[in-house]
Amino acid sequence: MSNAFDTNLQFLSGVGPRRALLLEKELGMGTVGDLLSCYPFRYIDRSRFYAIRELHPDLGYVQIRGHFSSMSVQGQGPKKRLTALFTDGLGEIEVVFFQGIKWVQAKIMTGVEYVLFGKVSVFNQSLNMVHPEVEQPFGAPLHGTASMQALYPGTEKLRNNGINQKFFSRLMAEALAKMKGQVSETLPSGLIQSLKLISKAEALANIHFPANKVLLAKAQQRLKFEELFYIQLDLLKQKSLRLSSLRGLRLVKIGEHFNNCYHKLPFSLTNAQKRALKEIRQDTGSGKQMNRLLQGDVGSGKTMVALLSVLIAIDNGFQACMMAPTEILARQHFASISKLTAGGSTTVGLLTGSTKRSERKKLFQALADGSLHLLVGTHALIEEQVQFANLGFVVIDEQHRFGVDQRARLWSKNQAPPHILVMTATPIPRTLAMTLYGDLDVSVIDELPPGRQPVKSLHFNDSQRLRVFGFMKEQIKTGRQVYVVYPLIKESEKMDYQNLEEGYEHVSRAFPLPDYFTSVVHGQQKSEDKAFEMNRFIEGKTHIMVATSVIEVGVDVPNASVMVIESAERFGLSQLHQLRGRVGRGAAQSYCIFMTGHKLTKEARQRIELLCASNDGFEIAEADLKLRGPGDLEGTRQSGIAFELKIADLAKDGQLLELARKTAIQVLAQDSLLQQAQNSILAAELQRLHKEVTDYSRIS
Known about the structure:
This protein is an alpha/beta fold. The chain is about 40% helix and about 15% strand. Helix 7 packs across helix 8 (about 215-245) and helix 15 (about 430-435) packs parallel to helix 22 (about 655-670).
């Protein structure tokens, strides 16, 4: 890109140092380049005029033509406002101004024709417009074209300092005029021609001031493709570098450790588990270092696949470790693995923050001399003093809960890089997985083990609580246990949602001692108190666990058959599905009850209805992506350029993402290091995007 892109915004007319600082602070916009890559979030068709009688609040911004029939000022001081009636001869609408009242009175007259442009809203059951743009029909034209007006993100602070949509429109026009003839191309000409894309200069001009809808669509396609293409090119280039420069440990032998466990399993593996295991075996036997994501719903048997893979590594003379995000989950992994490997020669250790010093000393000695085969633990595994004799296989559970720096320290615990298996119970839509984990190979376990019954999901509102309590008592009578989950820990003044403290009192009154025992768990407890309460529930000493969503990951209690989620409308789809996965771990029929208030938004109702109709985590994740956008899953972006989409939308641009990935694969197949002359643009642009970003290309 041209150096003019680096011009500080303060040098554009009407900005100056103070406004430039404000734009930097509010929107992270410091240069002309930043300004031009702040793409509109919506466009308004200014060619259409609505009749006032056609108006309704769902229309959003509209344009109407007519005249003011009356104006009056009401109130005093900060409550002062100017109210006017505007008519087009067939209908009328109230127009309200809270600011600039003197200017409105001086400039706007009754009986004169004006064009109003603003958002239709409802107040006191009547339609109104607050602070519309007011122009005479043949006044100064808008910047760009009269038909399509771009809308940009803004904040209250910006608007209060005169940085409104009109200001942005003028600023964009000036920035584009300044850049005329200086916009460098960011894609090779061969690629532009083969994909029939418009130039970068045309795309920037038409994204901000579209000449028509066809050119707007072409501008959007060009800029979206470029954004997705560079993310894919970056991920795939790093993967290619890793595979070509790093030799992997060859795991070819199947021996007593694997056979001892596999032949004593009380159940058969599902076809999906067998397929995942086969994919892992192919990777680890290829002589290349494995980086694989193992994806599957809660309870689908990922840990079993991970354990069998670990045992193959042990059969080939290597050690392994399994890192879990919580102490409870680490302990559960340790207990189930110890049980599955009992009677054989496999040695398993547990290391967490609460492991005693004397026990640590023994563990470290056994690790160093190679007599300990598998170490299960929390982030304590990455401590400096944890040294393996020959680490060959690393399993990371719920990977998005660990930072890249933490995983990098595991990587360095052997001279030859160990194979990496990342597990997640968060079903990730295909488009998101390609973007977040584009450099990992993906295995999916998409079926539940035999004998597991799907969880029945039900929706009740607050007035039906006694029915729910009655059902909980019936289940407890049959020997089952119950979770009750709340979204908040302490009462919030802004929200009247149920909260844990008040909820615990309700449950304690409805389920009194000595007939019922209740545990309480939340994120603000000390870890030993949390572990004590959870263990009481795991051991069956308490009937009910009242908790916050802290239990989303890390509790496996086959005897718990009911999950009650209070204020379910407060949780996202994927989180509700994860919470539901805490029940249904045993053979008994399990239930998930979504409790909500009476008044639900359209989106909240859609979420609850979808969950009651489906147990398919991937279907739910796709719906979540469409309803909420990528959300906090963006935080799992793990390497290379920062994962921040400015124009592409993963929920809507799946086909474009597929094309971007396919194109990146083709480019790298012919020139894996981007050293050929026609790819110099790509190498330079990748380097620019990588500025100030740590390169984690060697880390899974």
